[in-house]
Amino acid sequence: MDPKQLAGEQAAAYVENNMVIGLGTGSTACWAIKKIGERIANEGLQLTCTATSIQSEKLAEQFHIPLTDIAQVSSIDITIDGADEIDRQLDMIKGGGGALLREKIIANITKYYIIVADESKYVAQLGAFGIPVEVVPFGWQRTAEHLEKLGAKPTLRKKEQETFITDNGNYILDCDFGLINDAASLETSIHNIPGVVVCGLFISRAHKLILGKKDGSTEEITTKR
Ligand SMILES: O=C[C@H](O)[C@H](O)[C@H](O)COP(=O)(O)O
């Protein structure tokens, strides 16, 4: 079985009746969404679900998962989401799919945050992936200069040769900072730049990582927060 599917489906087993659930984004979290849909259909689970992207909203609708707008949800029991890189402390880089802002808003109100990934995402040190930074379109070139002063090589994200636009109408600067030594202070420094909406560093947020492996096994790594 696909390691992403293994991890995603295993995470869906943590969902219990009457919970409020955050639905993540990406090619791994989608397996959790599908499985949650199956569990609703087969077990009659009553859930309140809210999604981290338009893409995940569409997927949830496809699997007949009822959705509640974030405006009505002040606390989430469990969110299941993916990561682009995750280290031994379960600090992460996210945003490869451009969903980082909604993902961080949802992570911020989540009591138990489960990350699902294949083993290639589990790294000793964050940074090789680069850090996606969502910026407002106004003066994005000036925001990019500030990121350069912090040590980044920023690249404006494109999709099919057009500027990539996030679900929130913003741009993404993919920032190569090299390998990162102090991710928490870098996150703060990036967030202090005017024009930055959010960056893809997710520090001290995840509670559990479920890794799917090529040999068909899974590993759960848990940390106390
Ligand atoms: O913006 C996208 C999200 O942060 C994804 O969760 C992340 O990019 C991982 O996606 P995938 O499971 O497709 O590698």
Notes on the structure:
The chain is α/β, with parallel strands linked by helices and 225 residues long. It folds into two domains: 3-124 and 203-222, Rossmann fold; 131-200, 2-Layer Sandwich (Alpha-Beta Plaits), CATH 3.30.70.260. The chain contains six helices and 15 strands. Strands 2-1-3-6-14-15 form a six-stranded mixed β-sheet, sandwiched between helices. Helix 1 crosses helix 2. The chain is globular, with a radius of gyration of 17 Å. Residues 24-29, 81-84, 94-100, 103 line the site of ribose-5-phosphate. Pathway: Carbohydrate degradation; pentose phosphate pathway; D-ribose 5-phosphate from D-ribulose 5-phosphate (non-oxidative stage): step 1/1. It catalyses: aldehydo-D-ribose 5-phosphate = D-ribulose 5-phosphate.
Key phrases:
225 residues; Rossmann fold; Alpha-Beta Plaits; six-stranded mixed β-sheet; 15 strands; 28% helix; binds ribose-5-phosphate; Ribose-5-phosphate isomerase A; Ribose5P_isomerase_type_A
Indicate how many domains the architecture comprises: 2
Low-confidence stretches: none
Largest sheet: 6 strands, mixed
The CATH C-level class name of the largest domain: Alpha Beta
Class by alpha and beta content: alpha/beta
Instruction: Indicate the radius of gyration in whole angstroms.
Output: 17 Å
Q: For the terminal residues, how far apart are their CA atoms? A: 32 Å
Average pLDDT over all residues: 97
Tell me, briefly, the overall form. Answer: globular
Sheet-strand content, in percent, reads 25-35%
The CATH topology of the largest domain is: Rossmann fold
- CATH-level-2 architecture of the largest domain: 3-Layer(aba) Sandwich
Quantity of strands, as a count? 15
Q: Give a list of the ligands.
A: ribose-5-phosphate
Keywords: Isomerase
Binding site for substrate: 25-28, 81-84, 94-97, 121
GO biological process, one term: pentose-phosphate shunt, non-oxidative branch
Pathway: Carbohydrate degradation; pentose phosphate pathway; D-ribose 5-phosphate from D-ribulose 5-phosphate (non-oxidative stage): step 1/1
